[in-house]
Structure formats: structure tokens, C-alpha cells
Amino acid sequence: MFSRLITLAPFFFVFLWSTGFIGAKYALVYIEPFTLLMVRMFITLVLLGAMCWYWVKKWPTKKEIGHQMVAGLLIHGVYLSGVFAAIKAGLPAGITAIIVGGQPILTVVLSWYLYKARLTLRQSFGFGFGLIGVIATVLFTQGVADFSFSFTAVLYALLALLAITLGSLYQKHFGAKVELLAANFWQYVSSLVLVTILSFTFETQEIEWSLTLILSLTWLILVLSFMATFLLLYLIREGEASQVASYFYLVPPTASLNAWVLFDERLVPAALFAMGLTVLGVYLVTSKGRSK
Predict the structure, then answer these.
(1) Cα–Cα distance between 66 and 253 in angstroms, integer?
(2) pLDDT at residue 265 above 70?
(3) Which of 163, 186, 217, 245 to pair with 111, CA 20 to 30 A apart?
């Protein structure tokens, strides 16, 4: 039973991670992006601290803590700040997702440059299919054609893309041996410092409390900060960097499905076909088949 759940971990991760874009869209109507992250990370850190006090038996060394704080600054602090700021600046959640969805390609390039990683021909085709599928999925989704170009918002999304890619590679190389609970705790420490500085530097900290904001914040903390992040760190620890990155190809199509259910956005047949192409791309990258 447990082994079956482990096998399904990538699919749970994709679904949970994709809901972050939806949660942000709901919450940012009532709160500024860095202030939202500050509140979210503070509550998350308090809960993580209590869990660590109860469960963690061996804390990482000072050197390991330093590595976790660098990884967390990128994976949580800069990545989430970029995504939330882009959505707040007017970039649709689907477009934000597709920009960040370029992580697999950037991961492959950086892995090739930094670690001399190699891809089979099969995997190369998979990445190509995945990229085409992600782009087509969002372009075929209703409402995308109406978005107005914002250079600043796109820069925020590109910064998020670079951060999640570098953070995942850094975590794989320097922090994979640390216990997940302790790793998450120290990652959120550095992230909280960053978003607090950003909030008090650029925002007013004004919050319009509402049931929607409270529910969105609860979802972002319990589901994203805990469940999805733990799954991401587990996948990074257990898999190859390029393989883990390929799962992010599934996030924009899943986010589009979520938007269809929650916001009644129409999914045309071409979009469904594009999603299938994305799934094929991920299969080619992550399967064990050999290529000459």
C-alpha cells in the first residue's frame, strides 16, 4: 500500500502544486503579494517548529543549515515572490504557469552546463513535446487572448522560473541528505526574512480580511507549504533533476483544468489534445526506455 502511494507521489505533487496559482488568484484580491507570503510563511514556520520539536531527532549541521537556507531562499522566497507579484501585476495565472513551466528546459540546460548531465534522444523528444503541449494548452484556454502585456509582470515570472530551477538543482546537489522536516524548517526561515523585507520595503501591509482570504491562506499553508513542498523535496531527493523538473510540465494543464472547474473557463478540444501531448512528453522523459 505504501509503495503504491510513493509511486503516485509525482501526480499528487502536480495537482497540489497547480492549486497554488488558483489560491494566489483568490487571495491577492484582499492582500498584497509579499504581505501574503509573510503571513503565510510566519504561520507555516510556527507549525513547522512545533513539528520539528516533536519529531526531529537529529538536526543538520551548521553547514547543512546554510545550504538549506540558500535552497529555501530560491525555492520558496524568490520563486513565490515572483509568482505572486506577477499575478498581482496583472499577468493571468495561466500565463504565469506557462512561463514557470519552462523550468524543465532550463534545468536541462543548466544540468548539462554545470554537471555534464546527458539526455537520451527519447528524453529530448519528451521535453520538446512537453514544451509544445504546455504552450498550446494555455493558448487554447479561453481568456488568454484578452490579457494585456506587462513587461514588469513577465520579469517577475521569469525571476520565479530562474529561482525554482536554481533552487531545485542546489537542493539536489547540496541538501538532499537532510531530513525533510528539518530541511523545510530552515528553508522557510530564510524565505520569511526575504518576504518580510520585501513587504516592509514595497508594501503597506494592509489586509482586507474576508472568508475567501482566510480559506485561501489556509489552503496555501496546509496544502502548498506542507504537503506539496514535502513532496517536492522528496522527489528532488529520490530522482534525477531533469526527471523531477519534467513534472512541472503537467502543472499548467492541471491549473487550466482547475480554472475550468472553479472559474468556468471553457476547454476546447484542442486544449485537451495539447494536455495529452504534455502527458506524453512527461512519460518519455521519466520512463525507463532506452534511446540509441
Answers:
(1) 35
(2) no
(3) 186
